Amino acid sequence: MIALLPWLVAVWLFGIGLYGIVTSRNFVHLIGCLSVVQASTYVLLLAVGYRGGAGAPIFYTHPPGTPAVDPVVQALVLTDIVIGAAVTALLLALALQLHKRRGTLDPDELRPLHR
Amino acid sequence: MMHLLPPLPVAGPLAVAALLLATSRLLPARVPDTVALLTVLLATAACVAMAVGTAATPLTYWFGGWTPRDGLVLGVGFVVDQPGAALAAFIGLLFAATLVFAWGYYDEVHAHFHVLMLLFLAGMIGFCLTHDLFNLFVWFELISVAAFALTGYQLRQSALEAALNFTVVNTLGSYLMLAGIGLLYARIGALDFTGLGRGVAAHPGDVVVAAAFTLLASGLLIKGAQVPFHFWLADAHAVAPSPVSVVFSGAMVALGVFGVGRLTWTVFADSLPVHAVVHALLLGLGCASAVVGGLMALAQRHLKRLLAFSTISHTGILLAGLALLRQDATAGMLAYLVGHGLVKAALFMLAGILLALCGAIDEITLRGQGRALWPVGIAFGAGGLLLAGLPFGILQHGLGLIDAAAHAEGRGWVGPVLTVGTALTGAAVLRAGGRIFLNLGPDPGFESRAPTEADREKADRPLWLMLAPPAVMLLAAVVSGGPAAGFAMRAAGQAMQPDSAHILGGPSLPPTPFPAEPPGTGLAWISVAVAIALAGLLLMRHRLPRRALALNDRVSDAVVGSMARLHTGRIGDYVTWMVFGLALFVVSFVLT
User: What CATH number does residue A67 fall under?
Assistant: First the structure.
C-alpha cells in the first residue's frame, strides 16, 4: 500500500490540476493549476527512481557500489523544473500583458478573435 | 568526415542564435536576415548530405563519445536514417523559403524573430535525428517554447489570448509525454529507442507499456492537432504572424504525427496491443480529423483560420497513412507530408501577401480586392486545386499510395473518407479565392458568422520578393511526384525496419512489396469536381431559388453550424476535449 502511495498522489495531482484548469475563472489561477499538473510529473518521476534504504547518488564520500537512488530520473526532474519555470514565466508575462490591454483575466471573457 | 555531420545542423543554428541575440543591437538592419538565411541553408545542406549518405546504413553519433558498452547504451545518440535526414532537409528548405518571404519584415524587433526561428529549426532537426526518448522530449519542448514565443511576441490582443490557449494546451501535452517517458523508464530502465524497443518486446501486453503509449501518443497528437486534441491550432495559426503560420502548418504540426510514427516503428515495434490501437483508433482519429477539419475550414471567413483548419484535415490524412502500418502507406504519408508542407506553406504566404498589400485577412472584407493582384490569384487557385486533389504531383502520389494500401488491408472506405476531407478543404480555399480574386459571392452564407478580426502586416516589401517563394514551392509540389514517391518508398522501408544491427541488433515489421501500378486518379478527379462544384454553389447562392436557399441554409447549419459551436475559444473546453481523447485511448486498449 505504501509502495502504491506516490503513484496515487501523482494521479491525484494530475486530476485536480486538470479539474482546476477546466473550471478556472482567472488566468493566474489557471497557470497555478498547470503547475499542479506539472508537480504530478515530479512525483511520478521521483517515485520511479526511488530505492528503499538508498542514499543520494553522490559518490564523493561513499565507495562506488553503495546503494543509491536512480540519478537519471533526478536529471529528468531537473530538466522538467527548468522547462516548467520557463513556461510559467512566459505564461505569466502573457497574462500580465493581457490584463493591461483588457482589464480582465477571466478565460470566459477572453477569447481569440471576435466571436 | 560524414560521421561528424549529425550534430552540426542542430548545434550550428543554436550557436548562431545565441550570437545573434548577443549582438542584435549592434548589427545593421539586413545582417540578421542574411546570417539567419545562410545558417539555415548550411544546416539544410548538411541534412541533404546525410540524406544522400544514409541510403544504405544509418549514421550514428554518440554525444561526448559515450558509445554503448557490452550492448548497454550509456549516452545520448543521434541515429540519422534517410527519412529523418530527408525530413530535416525539407524543414530546412521550408525555413529558408520563409526567411526569404519574411525578408525585411521584422526590422523593428532587433533580430528576435531570427533568433526564435533558428531555435525553432534546431528543435525540429533534433527531433528528426534523435535516438533517445528523453532527448526527443527536450527537442519537443524547444519547438514548443519557440512556437509560443513566436505566436505571442507581437503583443497584439488576440495574439495574446491565442498564445495563452496554445501554451497551456501544448504544455499539458508535454507533461503527458513526460509522464509517459517516466512510466516506460520505470518498466524498462532505458531511454534510447533500441533499448526501449527490446524492453517493450519483453513486456508486449503490459499495462504500463499501454499507459505509456497512451500518454506519449496523446502528447504528440496535441502537437499534431488531431481530433479531439486540435482546438488550439486554429486560434494560434490565425493570430501568429504570416511567416510563423507558414512554418507551423508546413512543418511543426506534421512533426507531431511523424513523432508518433517514429515511436510506433521503434519503441513499440513489437507490441501487438499498441499496433492494434494504432490500427483502429489512430486510423479513426485521422479520418475524423480529415472530415472535421474540412467542414470547419468551409465555415471560416478569416483566411488564415480557414487554412489552419485545412491543415488539421490534411494532417488527418497523414495520421491515417501512418495508422495503416504498411510500408506503402508510410511512403504515402511521407510523400503527402512533403507535398502538403509545400502547398500549405505557399497558401499561407499568399494569405500573408493579401494581408500586407490589401490590409485585411477577412474573406468577406477582401471581396474583389485581389483583382489587381492576379498573379497571386493564379497561385492561390492552383494551391486550392492541389489541396482538392488535382492528380498531378506529390500530393496525389501520397494519397494514392495510402488509398491503395487501405484497399490491400481490406479497408477500402479509408480512401473515400479522406477524399471528403480534400474536397471540403479544396472547396473552402477555392471559395475564398473566387470571392477575393474574382469578385464572386456577394451574399455570404454560414461563413459570415465565423470569428474574425481586422489585422495588418507591414506592406513595404516588393510583390515579387513575396511571391517568388510560394510560386517555387507550388511548382516543386507539382513536378516532384514520381521520383519523390520512389524516394519515400525507400525511406519508409528504412523508417519502419530500423536497421539497428549496427547499434544493438533486433528485427522489426515485415516489408510490403511496392505496388505494381501507379495510383489511380479516379478518386482525385471526383474530389476536384466536388470541390469546384461546392465552391461554386457557395459563391452563387444569391442565384438560388428561395426554397433551395432555405434548404441549403438548414442543411449547412445542421452540419457545419453545430460543429462550429463546439469551437468556443474557451480553454476549459479544450482541456475537457483533451481528457475525452485520453479516455478514447483507454477504451480502445480495453476493447482491442
Answer: 1.10.287.3510
